[in-house]
Design a protein that fits this description.
Elements: H1 3-38, H2 40-46, H3 54-77, H4 86-119, H5 123-151, E1 154-155, H6 159-164, E2 169-170, H7 176-208, H8 215-222, H9 224-243, H10 249-274, H11 280-290, H12 296-305
Antiparallel strand pairs: 1-2
Helix pairs in contact: 1-3, 1-10, 3-4, 3-10, 4-5, 4-7, 4-10, 4-11, 5-7, 7-9, 9-10
C-alpha cells in the first residue's frame, strides 16, 4: 500500500472513531439531562431542606458536576464549526478534566462513607479508611498530572479539523513517562477497586447475610442495590481496562461514559436511599456525617409530598 493510501486509511479510521465517540457521547448526555430534569422535584423535596453537611455537598457536586462537564466536552467534541486558539483549547481540556476529577472523587468518597455507615463502624475506622483511600489517590493524582500535562497540549487548528467542524487540534506525543504514569494509574486503580469490592462484601456479610423474606426490599431501602452495583461495576471495569489493553474503541468510550455519567447517578441514588436506613448504628453515622435529622414538620412535609392527594390529612373546620 502506498503512503497516500495508508494516510487516507488512517484518516478514515480516525474520522469514524470521532463520529462514533460523538454519537455515544450524545446518547449519554441526553440521558443524563433527561434523568436530571425528571428527578429535579425529588431533589428539591429530599435534599434542599437539609443543612449543608457532607451528604448534601457531595450530592450537589455529583449531580451538577456532570452537567458542567457536558457543556465543557460539548465545546471540545461537538462540531460547531468554531475555531478556538490553542490556549483556549488547553484551558477547556484542563477545566473539563478538573471537573471530572472533582465529582469522580466525590462519588468515591460518598461510596466509602456509605459503606462505613452501613457497616456501623466506629469513627476511628473511618479515619483509617480515609488514610487508606488518600494514599493511593495521591499516587493517582501525581500520575494524572503527568498525563494531563501531555494530553492538554493543543496546536494551531489543522485544516482537516476545520473542514470537519471541530474547534481544536491536539499535539499529543506519548512518551515513556506518560506510559509509565498510565501504568501506575491502572495498577493503583485495581487496588482501590479491589478494596472497595471487599468492603461491599463486608457490608453484605454483616447486614444482609442470613436475612430471609424481604431481603430485596431491605437492600433497596438501605441503598444496598446502588452500593453493590457501584462496587461491582467499578471492580469489573477496572479489571477489564487493566487486563485487556487492546479494547475496542467503542468499549473504551462506553466505559469512560459510565464513569462520567452513570456512576454519579448511582451514587446520588445511594445518598438518597441511605437516609432511609433503619439500623440505629447506621443512622447515627448518617446523622453525624451525611445528613442531620430534619425537624419533624419538615420530615412530614417531605413524606406528604409523596402521598396521593386523596390520602393526605384533611384540615379544616371539621377537623
Amino acid at each position: 500500500m502506498s503512503a497516500p493510501s495508508e494516510e487516507l486509511a488512517r484518516l478514515t479510521v480516525l474520522v469514524c472513531e470521532l463520529m462514533t465517540q460523538s454519537y455515544i457521547s450524545l446518547a449519554f448526555h441526553v440521558f443524563y439531562v433527561y434523568y436530571f430534569t425528571t428527578t429535579l422535584i425529588e431533589e428539591v423535596i429530599t435534599m434542599w431542606p437539609h443543612q449543608w453537611m457532607a451528604g448534601k455537598i457531595l450530592f450537589f457536586v455529583m449531580r451538577y458536576g456532570p452537567l458542567l462537564r457536558i457543556v465543557q466536552m460539548a465545546l471540545l467534541e461537538t462540531r460547531f464549526y468554531i475555531t478556538f486558539t490553542p490556549k483556549t483549547c488547553s484551558s477547556l481540556f484542563i477545566s473539563s478534566f478538573a471537573t471530572h476529577m472533582v465529582y469522580t472523587y466525590a462519588t468515591e468518597v460518598a461510596l466509602l462513607i456509605c459503606i462505613h455507615a452501613l457497616l456501623g463502624s466506629k469513627r476511628k475506622y473511618l479515619v483509617l479508611l480515609g488514610i487508606a483511600y488518600a494514599v493511593p489517590t495521591a499516587c493517582i493524582l501525581r500520575s494524572q498530572s503527568i498525563w494531563i500535562k501531555e494530553f492538554s497540549r493543543a496546536r494551531p487548528i489543522d485544516p482537516l479539523d476545520v473542514e470537519l467542524g471541530y474547534s481544536c487540534t491536539w499535539a499529543v506525543a506519548v512518551d515513556a513517562q506518560v506510559i509509565q504514569a498510565d501504568r501506575v494509574i491502572k495498577y493503583v486503580s485495581v487496588a482501590k477497586a479491589s478494596c472497595t469490592a471487599i468492603l461491599a462484601l463486608a457490608v453484605y456479610y454483616k447486614r444482609y447475610r442470613g436475612r430471609t423474606g424481604k431481603l430485596i426490599k431491605i437492600v433497596n431501602r438501605d441503598g444496598g442495590v446502588q452500593l453493590f452495583l457501584l462496587a461491582g461495576i467499578y471492580f469489573v471495569l477496572t479489571m477489564i481496562e487493566t487486563s485487556r489493553p487492546g479494547l475496542s474503541y467503542i468499549t473504551k468510550v462506553c466505559i469512560k461514559k459510565y464513569r462520567t455519567i452513570l456512576s454519579p447517578i448511582l451514587t446520588c441514588r445511594l445518598l438518597l436511599n441511605i437516609q432511609k436506613v433503619a439500623d440505629p448504628a447506621a443512622r447515627s453515622v448518617v446523622s453525624a456525617m451525611l445528613f442531620a435529622p430534619l425537624p419533624q414538620s419538615e420530615d412530614f412535609d417531605r413524606f406528604d409530598h409523596h402521598l396521593p392527594i386523596n390520602s393526605r390529612p384533611v384540615t379544616g373546620a371539621g377537623s
